[in-house]
Amino acid sequence: METYATVKGQIVIPAALRHKYGIKSGTKIIVTDTEDGILLKPVTEEYLKNLQGSLKGKGGLKILQQERAREREKES
């Protein structure tokens, strides 16, 4: 599949992929820079359910707080 970026850098995710991954209007998308290119991960209810309990006992809260602090610094 192919899509194009607009002048603002926006892209259209093809309908077949939106349906397959449960992407609806307002769905948050995690954008990650990888060695192979850009990875887009939709944050859907299913994604969140799969994460539930995955960080238990691994300092997940501290990591989350650090990430949020970094995001706040970038926005300032």
Any descriptors?
76 residues, alpha+beta, two-stranded antiparallel sheet
Can you put this structure into words, describing what you see?
By secondary structure, the chain is α+β, with helices and mostly antiparallel strands. The chain has one domain. The chain has three helices and two strands. The protein has helices at residues 15-20, 45-51, 60-75; strands spanning 28-33, 38-43. A two-stranded antiparallel ribbon has the order 1-2. Strand 1 (28-33) and strand 2 form a beta hairpin. The model has no long low-confidence stretch (mean pLDDT 86).
Number of domains: 1
Percent in helix: 25-40%
Beta-strand content estimate = 15-25%
Secondary-structure element sequence? Answer: HEEHH
Rg calc: 15 Å
Describe the sheet with the most strands.
Answer: 2 strands, antiparallel
Low-confidence segments: none
Strand order of the largest sheet: 1-2
Query: How many H/I helical runs?
Result: 3
Describe the SSE topology.
Elements lengths: L14 H6 L7 E6 L4 E6 L1 H7 L8 H16 L1
Antiparallel strand pairs: 1-2
Gist of the model:
This protein has helices spanning 15-20, 45-51, 60-75; strands at residues 28-33, 38-43. By secondary structure, the chain is an alpha+beta fold.
